[in-house]
Amino acid sequence: MNIVLLSGGSGKRLWPLSNDTRSKQFIKIFKTGEDEYESMVQRVYRQILSVDEQAEVTIATSKSQVSAIHNQLGEHVGISVEPCRRDTFPAIALASAYLHDVRGVREEDAVVVCPVDPYVEKDYFEALQQLGSRALMSEANLVLMGIEPTYPSAKYGYIIPEDTNVVSRVSVFKEKPTEEAAKDYIAQGALWNGGVFAFRLGYVLQRAHELIAFTGYQDLFDKYDTLTKISFDYAVVEHETQIEVMRFAGMWKDMGTWNTLTEAMASSSIGKAILNERCENVHVVNELNVPVLCMGIKDAVVAASPEGILVSDKNQSSYIKPFVDKIDQQIMFAEKSWGSFQVIDIEEGSMTIKVTLNPGHGMNYHSHELRDEVWTVIDGQGKTIVDGEVRQVGPGDVIRMPAGVAHTILAKTRLHVIEVQVGTEISVHDKKKLEMPCI
Amino acid sequence: MNIVLLSGGSGKRLWPLSNDTRSKQFIKIFKTGEDEYESMVQRVYRQILSVDEQAEVTIATSKSQVSAIHNQLGEHVGISVEPCRRDTFPAIALASAYLHDVRGVREEDAVVVCPVDPYVEKDYFEALQQLGSRALMSEANLVLMGIEPTYPSAKYGYIIPEDTNVVSRVSVFKEKPTEEAAKDYIAQGALWNGGVFAFRLGYVLQRAHELIAFTGYQDLFDKYDTLTKISFDYAVVEHETQIEVMRFAGMWKDMGTWNTLTEAMASSSIGKAILNERCENVHVVNELNVPVLCMGIKDAVVAASPEGILVSDKNQSSYIKPFVDKIDQQIMFAEKSWGSFQVIDIEEGSMTIKVTLNPGHGMNYHSHELRDEVWTVIDGQGKTIVDGEVRQVGPGDVIRMPAGVAHTILAKTRLHVIEVQVGTEISVHDKKKLEMPCI
Predict the structure, then answer these.
(1) Considering A331, B169, B192, B273, which has the largest number of Cβ atoms within 10 A of its Cβ?
(2) What is the pTM of this model?
(3) Cβ A350–B295 below 8 Å, yes or no?
């Protein structure tokens, strides 16, 4: 199975656990063992491989997520990197060109496109396999998955099939309706549109070449920023008459808000939390090192991370985005390809961060113009290169890097370092990448 | 006026803003200007001096609060330090001996004893002056303040006076009654016992000598740990027949719980907080550097500090103590005589703290057996002494102190330092105080 996972969004709807660099799909929230959790993207990737261990998984995403994806899924997953955001049609066109030109998928092969963040079980991915098989043999150009609705939701688009067979021609699409209209549609046999569809690769490549002038993957990648933003629905689906829908009646949840996310939590809290016996329907997700104590609150979600603290009525939790948009703040936590960092103190003229490097990984060789930096290794073994000079380092070692001096650190074992930045102007933009010296 | 402020309690009822080293009376929560706040002890001290600028204020407290008191009130306030906690009778006896032997107060002078944390206005302290004057001229040995009750509370003790005059003999005391009984008492003219009373110094010294064998202040201080725990009520008030009560009808609030504390807040939030329009009767006190976002919650208090996060229904907030008692955690924040510190990161084998030194102040000269320390100055000017060697330091300077090496830092201007501790066993007990070298 060739599967393209669309990984979008800056994920402000799950603030403070998601932020501009960590979208909701990377939050480790699903319990896999004692004190072990996986993220949505890890869960979906694991589920796909459990159904089809030969699956070719490609994640279509922006540059900002590449580090987090490698960090969570390893180096082997395919990534189609969008140089900038241009909505789903250019993203799917680019991923299709990537599959064809880079991964060697043939035009007659089936490709399944799916969001990266459905909360589902194994049967969903078995259905994706069937969707792919159907795309291979069907006369239709697109085969959609239609999810059997469980209630007349106004949050989803609806697909109205021509008949009630498992696979049917699509009669009409309906965008997010009112609850009343949704009831009518469901009475007519309508299905939810979960954004999942399959096609023969050649079909989408042909549509792409009709709408965009490009020679191949690299050319499309290079001119990506010149493309018009347009969704796959508007660019392709609306103009296509040969569309089928395949019913799916298994469990499916959209994890878009805190309210729906907490429904998938195995226990009422993750992280340090105490809830007294007067709390009702309360969920706590605490990424901080200090406890959250809840006393007598009801129908609420409490989420705490280095970015901030959310205390929300569950129904109100779907309205947080405009409030979060107004928060203008330094990013306090980020996953990188080499590990992660967390800001632990900010003062005028200084910033202190905790850096975690994964074994075998290292930062780029770089320097800063306007700040001095000091590393104190607190755990692990590794080496630093400062102004070309290599040094083995371990717990208690201190490394000074005045402004202008090139430096990097490389982890032998997992390495924890406290980095103190001191300077008049501290900014992520004050960073000059340099070539690693030959040593 | 000679006034003794009783400053007690570890203050777990206002967790996470109060902890074992910072009692509730030191939390800066009362607005005095744009982004300026004062603590209960600062507010009371300021109010006393505004009524009587000649007032001799003595704070009776434990050793653990001395730093915070000097930090918040300066060096001039009198402090009677209890070497350990022995309840109110030994504390008042010790403070009385301190006033007599150290501060030169005469036996015939009046002393007023008052808790350090009532939320009151100026008229309350004017009433304290009258209480002191009454103690000088009255035949009674104790003159109590009786607060006109505003509702039949089961939280307070009641004083039932013989008549309804402003000053009256006390007929009987009633401990915390049921609400029903409280209604009866109030119908009989009962008053709340706010723990405030005045006496001639000689009277309490005499009682103290009757119950404890001691020669003077220093002797009492030295044998303090051998004394029996007993309250002033049991030791003195219950055996005294010559007691008067003076009515006080002004504003009086007991700031014992989050619920009552928030009633005294000038606005719905302190610190970084966003409340959407669907929040009702919500108060936020946020001492962290990141925002708290509240969506659609009601009748709740949210408090966040480096120690933890509380989200409580207001009525439930008076029951937090047993839950907080169970939290076993490193103290994350403390005020010291020289400034303050905040733990910003804890890992196995390391701890990172931000140290703030007030201008002109410095730490003790000391060393650690089991940990190395590294200071990075992030702001301000000062000097370090490491192994006898003096060095002027400023922003960006790094100072290494391997285990066993004596060190201190002294602030010229306000100094901010990041201290990284690395060692196998990091404990507050691993500290050897040394004599400052002559330099």
Answers:
(1) B192
(2) 0.83
(3) no
